[in-house]
From TrEMBL, chain A:
Gene3D superfamilies xrefs: Rhodanese-like domain, TusA-like domain
SUPFAM superfamilies attached to this UniProt entry: Rhodanese/Cell cycle control phosphatase, SirA-like
Occurrences of domain Rhodanese (ranges): 100-185
Protein's UniProt name: Rhodanese domain-containing protein
Domain of life, per lineage: Bacteria
Pfam family membership, one: TusA
From TrEMBL, chain B:
Pfam family, one: Rhodanese
Cross-referenced InterPro entries: Metallo-B-lactamas, Mito_Persulfide_Diox, POD-like_MBL-fold, Rhodanese-like_dom, Rhodanese-like_dom_sf, RibonucZ/Hydroxyglut_hydro
Protein name, as recorded: Rhodanese domain-containing protein
Rhodanese domain location: 17-112
GO biological process: glutathione metabolic process; hydrogen sulfide metabolic process
An annotated Gene Ontology molecular function: sulfur dioxygenase activity
């Protein structure tokens, strides 16, 4: 399946260092929090894009291969690291499976690519940016456990849901970046 | 200032002649820590090329002016980019042609010795990967042992020496590198020998390499004798060449011994390994010169670049030959094994003829050190 991204970059046929040189340049036009898909054929690009992303603070999400082309997914570093969380109802990662099993749902508000490369089995994906337009997919009376990578987007999403009249909303902290249990992939 | 190309052969001369070199390795940190160009007198700085995209000003003070600086990357492109930046900053600088890929493939033929009646013994040192192959030459004929996949190096060398390749041996089914043996035999009409116990799954024809087999290279003079010596694999076989040299394959190295686990049977084969190292080899003349199929660390190289040492000296100095209790031995060779070589299971499949990857895929499989030993 194809994964929804914000910007695509064609580096097919280019040898090292060009995939990274072009990715670095392309990142200037990507907004914080957006997903860049880098298409490359150089196998060395897997390790290098991962290491480069980590060294400059972008989030390397993963790589999949499709018809001999490597598709790398990188999320531009956002301001979601240290932001203060405002939504008051919270639970921890460890509690969420049990709590949600009583008729609640886990709502994953990360980008589709992040969800695709690893999510909690049974969780629903609605990226933060699409939430406002997709509220009708959710049930106001159901318990909704909102999760993202570090708790910041889910905090905003929880506030948004509460504002729209959802009453049983809980933010899950610290989020998927600290998730130690099994993950399901959809790539 | 200028950017100058340095070939893998030139780097090999620097290693063998113990020259100094400063290597600016611009691969990512994991790759560098896993595997790099080793030299007795080499210094290193590892900064990934992608950390230098905005400029090299910060590292210029760390580059020496009194020795050659060589920029190295995986395939060449990034080292050239960084070398140009260093050059623009006012320094003369070299880059490695073909990068680590070409370093991994380079073979340096070194003469080990003359043999009886005008024969010669050559060791082909693959410095980048630590593989050692051998060619025995006598009276217009040649035998090759443990050839790596760069078959033309061997066939061209035979042409230069005006000898016909008659026998090609693999001491065992290799797991760390792709063998060139079968292909050399096909190209030259030579006989290809493989130990049958390692060859149960192979999909091509071969001549069984059995204990006690002897072949003559040339009309009469040089004899190569096979000695069954299991442990690294169940079929592993050593050779005694001209009554002077013991080719140990991956059973015994200069500073380490073979690991028994690469075909997945460490527990079963540890007893064989013990038997080979502590009994069979003990019955051999201590003056035999051991010629292994690998070296692991640069310190194992002699001054002339060869990897060779008297068997008696190894009995005295090699830790793996001096573990008295069988129990301790078992622990040493099964408990604390280093990581397995890159893609070793695929490489075994290639050597069995089950898969036929293209050259790029073969290069990819062979990336990294050989890791056939346990110390």
């Amino acid at each position: 399946m194809s994964i929804k991204v914000d910007v695509k970059l064609d580096c097919k046929g280019l040898a090292c260092p060009m995939p990274i040189v072009k990715t670095k340049k392309a990142m200037n036009d990507v907004e914080s929090g957006q997903i860049l898909e880098v298409q490359a054929t150089d196998k060395g690009s897997i390790a290098d894009l991962k290491a480069w992303s980590e060294s400059v603070g972008h989030q390397y999400i993963g790589t999949k291969e499709h018809d001999g082309v490597l598709l790398h997914y990188i999320r531009k570093s956002g301001d979601d690291h240290e932001a203060e969380k405002k939504f008051e109802q919270t639970i921890t990662n460890e509690e969420v499976i049990d709590r949600a099993s009583n008729g609640g749902i886990i709502l994953d508000v990360r980008e589709e690519a992040e969800y695709a490369f690893g999510h909690i089995e049974g969780s629903r994906s609605i990226p933060m940016g699409e939430l406002e337009n997709r509220l009708d997919e959710l049930d106001k009376d159901q318990e909704i456990y909102v999760i993202c990578r570090t708790g910041t987007r889910s905090d905003l999403a929880a506030q948004k849901l509460a504002e729209k009249g959802f009453t049983k909303v809980v933010n899950v902290l610290p989020g998927m970046s600290s998730w130690n249990d099994d993950l399901t992939k959809k790539i | 200032m200028t950017v100058i190309k340095m070939t893998a052969a030139e780097v090999a001369r620097k290693v063998i002649e113990n020259q100094s070199l400063f290597i600016l390795d611009v691969r990512n940190k994991d790759a560098f820590e896993d595997w790099k160009i080793e030299g007795h007198s080499f210094d290193y700085l590892n900064i990934p090329y992608f950390d230098l995209l905005d400029g090299v000003d910060e590292i210029i003070p760390q580059l020496p002016t009194d020795k050659d600086v060589l920029v190295v990357c995986a395939k060449e492109g990034s080292s050239l980019m960084v070398a140009e930046m260093v050059s623009e900053a006012g320094r003369d600088v070299f880059y490695l042609e073909g990068g680590m890929k070409s370093w991994s493939s380079y073979l340096e033929p070194i003469k080990v010795s003359d043999l009886t009646g005008g024969g010669e013994l050559y060791q082909f040192v693959r410095l980048g990967k630590g593989c050692l192959s051998y060619m025995v030459i006598s009276e217009g004929e040649a035998a090759i042992i443990d050839a790596v996949r760069f078959t033309e190096v061997f066939t061209n060398f035979a042409k230069e020496k005006n000898v016909e390749i008659k026998h090609v041996f693999d001491t065992h089914l290799h797991a760390d590198h792709i063998s060139g043996g079968r292909h050399i035999a096909e190209a030259t009409g030579a006989t290809y020998y493989l130990p049958p116990k390692d060859a149960e799954e192979v999909v091509f024809d071969y001549t069984p390499l059995e204990d006690g087999l002897t072949v003559k290279v040339g009309a009469s003079q040089i004899e190569i004798g096979a000695l069954y010596s299991p442990g690294h694999t169940i079929g592993s076989t050593s050779f005694i060449v001209d009554s002077k040299y013991l080719l140990t394959g991956d059973i015994l190295f200069i500073d380490s011994i073979g690991r028994p686990d690469l075909a997945g049977l460490a527990e079963d084969w540890v007893g064989d390994l013990r038997e080979t190292l502590y009994r069979r080899y003990r019955e051999l003349a201590e003056d035999l010169i051991v010629l292994p199929a690998h070296f692991m660390i640069i310190e194992e190289l002699n001054e002339d670049g060869t990897v060779a040492k008297r068997l008696g000296d190894l009995f005295a100095e090699n830790h793996g030959l001096n573990i008295e209790s069988e129990e301790d031995f078992r622990h040493t060779v099964t408990d604390n094994l280093p990581p397995q070589p890159n893609a070793y299971e695929q490489i075994r499949q290639v050597n069995m003829g089950k898969i036929t990857p293209d050259t790029d895929e073969q290069t990819e499989m062979e990336i990294g050190p050989n890791r056939c030993a346990v110390r």
